[in-house]
Amino acid sequence: MTGAPAVKRGRRGVRMSSSSRAVLYLVLVLFAAGYLLPMYVMVVTSSKDFAEVSLATMWELPRQFSLDSFSRAWFGSREQGYTGLNDKFFNSVQLVIPAATLSSLLGSLNGYVFAKWKFRYSNLLFMLFIFGMFIPYQSVLIPLVQVLMSVGLYGTIPGLVLVHVIYGIPITTLIFRNYYAAIPTDLIEAARIDGAGFYGIYRRVLMPLSIPGFVVALIWQFTSIWNDFLFAVVITQNPAVQPITVGLNNLAGSYIVEWNVQMAGALLAALPTLVVYIILGRYFLRGLLAGSLKG
Amino acid sequence: MQRSTPAWAVAVTLKRSLARRKTSLDRVLAILTLAPSAAAVSLFVYAFIAWTGFVSLTRWRGVIPDYAWAGLRNYVRLFQHERFQTDLRNTVVFTAVFLTGCLVVGFLLAVLLDQRVAGEGLFRTVFLAPMAVSFVVTGVVWRWMLNPGTPETGYVGINLLLDKIGLGLLKSGWYTDPRIGIKAVALAAAWQMSGYVMALYLAGLRGIPEELREAARVDGATEIQIYRRVIIPLLRPITLGAVIVLGHISLKVFDLVAAMTGSGLGFSTDVPAYFMWDTTFRGNNFNQGAAIAVVLLVMVAVLIVPYLIYTMRSEAEI
Known about the structure:
The structure holds two protein chains of two kinds.
Chain A: H1 5-8, H2 18-46, H3 68-75, E1 76-77, E2 82-83, H4 86-116, H5 122-134, H6 138-150, H7 157-181, H8 185-193, H9 198-209, H10 211-227, H11 230-235, H12 244-253, H13 259-291
Antiparallel strand pairs in A: 1-2
Helix pairs in contact in A: 2-13, 3-13, 4-7, 4-10, 4-12, 5-7, 7-10, 10-13, 12-13
Chain B: H1 7-55, H2 73-80, H3 82-113, H4 120-128, H5 135-145, H6 157-164, H7 181-206, H8 210-218, H9 223-234, H10 236-252, H11 255-260, H12 272-282, H13 286-317
Helix pairs in contact in B: 1-13, 3-7, 3-10, 5-7, 7-10, 8-9, 10-13, 12-13
């Protein structure tokens, strides 16, 4: 993916004067400030008291720090007539843990077969899998709703788990297939000669080597399932089972709600994936590059 | 005198033949392992697509399915529908702004970060952070930032900020102005996705050997010329990959529009994916929704299928 580290360091910008270095840093800092602007707005606005929130002062720091908006976004407000995000947050947790785990497991098995047990037309089949990653989900929504209704999974969290596991297969298969393709086939051959079978090789050779692959797939699935809105809004009409993205959208859609509560809600919805990203950003990046089809 | 085969060689031969016999069983196991996923993908992707295609040819309006044949009527009506025509125009504008923004800014950031910058990791983290966030969050936050304000409040949000830093001439009605509404939405999308392009280009730049630059320098090329004549052409596969991924995102964009503006004034920020959801699940016009879905799928397939075939072929050659 990246060049050899020895070459990487100390090569570019050979003839750069200190003044152009200063310009370089200035431009980068300005860009970074621009990228952080929405985060700034979220943090600043959500730590203001309602009395202090107005469009005219949105860029200013709070005069008095207040956590009131977070508690309102979390617990809701009966007198204002909106429900909080706490239930929805836990709905998302209940959704994302089984869905990300199951789709990663499936993806690793599929990737193992596609990388190391090629058969006739396996490449064509792989391509048919991958195409599923790019389809607009609108083209499957109508039958999906009908099928989920007929099996009693419509409007339930398990139904949403099923949907995310199935539509996660293409990307997780791709991630693991690329990951396993980089593992020498000699290793598999050696294990085979030592008598290991299909699952033996998977369990004793590939699984132990797969930890980084699993981290990438899990983070990727965690992020995209947590952030999903389309499946959530179509499949869960009932507020009691809605994930946090739908909850946030409803919170922001009701006219009574104050901006500070909305920003606190947005921060609550963004926090889990942001934390994962900040801690494990390297693996997130690898999933990103896998998504562009180049492992 | 005949030399006897050493015992270890016998053992290896035996093991090999045993392994070979096991191979056929292993192949069966491999295919069985893949079977559930293959079944799920054929049903949930391919059969569902066919099903949607079928619904798009029926008269199904209302809550109860109605499979009476309608032929291509839904498609004819769809393309005559003013809202859908607006949607297609919006998609073109959105794609143009979003792609240009992401590619230009992403490339620029990658080049800047490639100059042996102190704190590179920190900058990278900042530029990529928006990608970790949901489009719904982006929509909610940017709706507030791009609020142009009213005569009572005066300029607010980005407009106020632009005013304060002396760039007041860039002030705009943003998504409240029907002429530029969809561009404002594309701006928020570019904020979210440009870090992705930066990551792709940065990985690509790091893969270009320094000797190539040196050779060009020896030939008297300026740094700008090196980028124009050497680096950018070498990065073409990455640009293509980015265009494909961003392009399919922009054709499908839904959540950002739903959270930020909805259809907008006079459908000024409406897009096909939003129209599909609106007409199907709010309006119960399942036939029309299915037709929109099929058009969307065709647009994405035209972009993706040639690229997939190309990628698989070039991979098979290696």
